[in-house]
Each structure stands twice: as structure tokens, then as C-alpha cells.
């Protein structure tokens, strides 16, 4: 255990610009503030697997004590992550996975279960014979593969609900809009949509509107983020109907990293809980988020007060020292 922590944590993010990953980074920073002195090396691969590989290689050269990584695509990132692990550097996989079991710990929700929850939710809210459009994430990224498999399993008990069309929106709104423009003739017969994240779900909503199609289709997304532009707001504003909560795990990843670094017991699989949010419980979720935010502000105020007290104490020490010397 290093005394004055000088641990170097490498954090390789597959993309950093969306609200979900910004929220993750905020959580990471709050947890890191409990470990002053830690060196934090953060990289953003901007949706490119080859860039992410290069960034991890560079981190290895810089020297890191632990790697936290969200791999853009499973297969392409497997080799480099195995290399890091085999060097004896602990690896925490967060949210997206590699194709390998060589990692120290995983932090994230169960994406298969998430997809299944979306399927069961849609199945139980739709009546009669219905056609569903599935908008999937980036092919080859593990949550897209697992959410798709879970969704199909979730719908199995509803034989009247059929997945009529599937497209890849790659987690992104413009790509979703492009794909929907391509299949615009099929959209009028769609009764419900499952998009693998809320960003794509809002793209779906925009595409339907652009086609002047009365928005009869139910739209379900994933993430359910609080705040401006988040899924909770989209549900409250009826842009989408529901979203499956996908916790970012930023706090848990840092907490797990320190357990590993300090040789304390830790869980290898840290599966975060989820639930479906729709108009019935969205206000409750918003209230909870407000409360958490207020508590965070209280903590920050307390920290400022402690720092001020520390300052006063230090000044008194100086006065005392001066007296003693004199
Ligand atoms: C953010 C995101 C989320 C999604 C997750 C899957 O970059 O696209 O919206 O839930 O990644 O890895």
C-alpha cells in the first residue's frame, strides 16, 4: 500500500462526447477527489477502435498502475487488453467488454437483462398483432450484441409482437436518422421501437416527425440520464415513452480500482441494477436525482469549510512557531 497515494490510473474511454460518458466522468472525478495525489490519465478514442488501441499502447509506455477501459468494439480491443493484463497490470472493464475473460474486474449493468426488460416492457404494453423496429448500437460493441439478444428473448412470450425491421444506428443520432430515411416506406406500419440508447431513440422520434407521421409508435430507449437533454427529460416531454436505466458505473470503477491497488478484497463482477422508467415513475426518478445533486453540493460546501478551517489552523501554527523561535 503506497502511503501518500501516487497511483497512476489509466482510463481509456471509447468516446467521451456524449452525455452518458460525460456523466460517467463526473462520477469518476467525484470519487477520485477522495484520493488526493492520484495521477489520472484519461483518453478519448472518439469512436475509433484503432485510435483506442494506440492510446492504450501509449499509456503502457507512460507507465500505469491500473487500466480502466470501455472497449469501443469487443474483438479489435481484445489483444491489447490481454497484453496489458498479461503484463501484470490490473484491468477493469467498464460498460463495454472485450471478447476475452482476461480482466481483473468488470463494472456495469447486465446488457442482456436490459434488452430483456425492454422486450418484456414492450410486450406487455402492446395489444394485438404488432410490428417492432429495433435500432441497434454499433455492430461488434458488446452492449449492442447483448441488448439485441436479450430483447429477442424478452419478446418470446409475446407471439403477437414481431420484430419487423432491424437497423444499426451505431449509438449515434445522425446514423440513426440516415438509416430511418433509407427504410422510410416501412415506418408507417411500425407500432413500437426499441432503440439501444436514448440518443438513437430521440433520432427515431425526429425521423417520424420529419415524415409527418403521427407519432403512434411507442419508443423505448436505454440510459435514462437525468438533466438537460437526458432520457428522463425526454420521457417527461413525451419525446420517448420509456427508457431502461443504464448506470454509468464511474464511481464503482474508481472504488474498485483502489481496492485492487490497495490489495483489499474486491468483487470480480460488479453488476449494477437497472429498471424501466416511463411516465409512471419519471417524476420519482427526477426527485431522487435532485436529492443526490443537493447532497453533492452539501459535500462540496463542507469541503470548502474544512479547507478554510485548515487554513486558519495553519496560520495559527505559524504564529506559534514564531513565538517559540523568538
Ligand atoms: C454512450 C453509449 C450509451 C450506451 C453505451 C453502450 O457512449 O452509447 O448511450 O448505453 O454507450 O456502451
Brief descriptors of the model:
12 strands, 326 residues, 10 helices, 48% helix, histidine kinase, alpha/beta
Polypeptide structure, described:
This is histidine kinase. 48% of the residues lie in helices and 19% in strands. The protein is built from ten helices and twelve strands. The protein has helices at residues 19-32, 49-62, 74-86, 111-125, 142-155, 173-182, 198-210, 231-236, 250-261, 282-325, and strands at residues 8-13, 39-44, 66-69, 91-94, 105-109, 130-136, 161-168, 192-195, 218-223, 242-245, 269-272, 276-278. It has a six-stranded parallel sheet with strand order 2-1-3-4-5-11, sandwiched between helices. The chain has a six-stranded mixed sheet with strand order 7-6-8-9-10-12, sandwiched between helices. Strand 9, helix 8 (231-236) and strand 10 (242-245) form a beta-alpha-beta unit. Helix 1 (19-32) packs parallel to helix 9, helix 4 packs parallel to helix 5 and helix 6 (173-182) packs across helix 7. The radius of gyration is 23 Å and the shape is globular. The structure holds beta-D-fructofuranose.
